[in-house]
Amino acid sequence: MRLLENKNILIGVTGSIAIYKSLELIRLYIKEGANVRVIMTNGAKKFIRALTFETISQNKVLDDSSEDWSTNTPNNHIAIGKWADIFVLAPTTANTINKLSNGIADNIVTQTALAYPKVKLLAPAANTNMMQNPLTKASLKMLKLCNFKIIDTTTKELACKDIGDGAMALVEDIFDLTAKELLKDDFWSDRKVVINGGGTIEKIDDVRYISNFSSGKMALSLAKALTYRGADVCLITSSELETSKSIYTIKVQSSAEMLQYCNDAIRVAKKGKMSDATLMDNSQMKLIQKKPFFFAVAAVSDYTPKFPQNGKMKKEDIGDEWSLPLKKNTDILENIDKDGVYTIGFKAELDLKSAKENATKMLENKSLDGVCLNILDQTNQFGSDTNQITLLLKKSEFQLERSSKLEQSLQLVDRLKEEFND
Q1: Which residue of the set 160, 234, 262, 372 is catalytic?
Q2: pTM score, two decimals?
Q3: Which end of the chain is more exposed for a tag (fewer CB within 10 A), N or C?
Q4: Mean pLDDT, the chain, as a whole number?
């Protein structure tokens, strides 16, 4: 499975030192099956030759000198826009930003942008002072009203050796936002989703703790898949894995912290929103809200130290043997408000014989809408990059094909759409 199979992505590059990042971005798009074409300004060609982009994209670059109106191929600023499913401008200089906001179309990139009717992703790259200039800030605000989606810059040491906000976003973040635009689904779009993940850390003292081997990879993959489908995701995790900027992430350690933040996030998710798309009599607005989802993916410790200590306990004080009193931990799934929320639990089992029975009991006893059963063995362990899940629902079950955790997550969210299509 390739995420962007047969999607047509148009990339516009302008004269910024950040242009080298666009080569890596194209590589990521093509790796996931997309068809990529590049248009360049004359300023961009001062940094990288067109031949380099043609080699990476395997398509002829379009610039001011190569427009062709004599055939039906997408070799001009009108036809290439009709070909593209999305237009990504990366990097975009302050000069181009200010031109676009004023409707100036004096090169191939600005002409294509003016003619392109669908969503345009714009990744700025400029010196901090240029980005913070009131004219540029005003231009960005205007572009947000004109079918542009702005990808925030980052703070780092810039090419001019200044340290400030103005560097182009990470290519992985640009890729994720592109995938979200191309893969979003009406069922998941703007639906609020809360996910917990990772193994909880239960303090013994200030240097020791009880935990487990959960990596948090499945929760992160699920968060990414749901983001691609358009959901508004909050990930509450103990994992140190890097997350995308498009995923709102809360880092926690203990199960108590996780429970608190899960309850808070679910409470926020259940609040309605006003939409001007649902005017009732031109004066009233109907309160609408897609039913939220909660995915309990975290491997929460069953027991926690009964008497956690401050500081570090000395082995001289503990002695040759250590009996560590534990108490049964709070069950997160039993202590969240599931009313008005689709709740999907995850259960990892080692015993093949009792796995399904235990998962079914979990589904019934904890009043869940579904359980994802994951049977651990030599080929399917904590921390692996692949997974195989059986989705148990109240009246049916589905075996998802073994695949990468991201592919498995996409299979899961698409199946849930079919089952809970409200």
Answers
A1: 160
A2: 0.88
A3: C
A4: 90
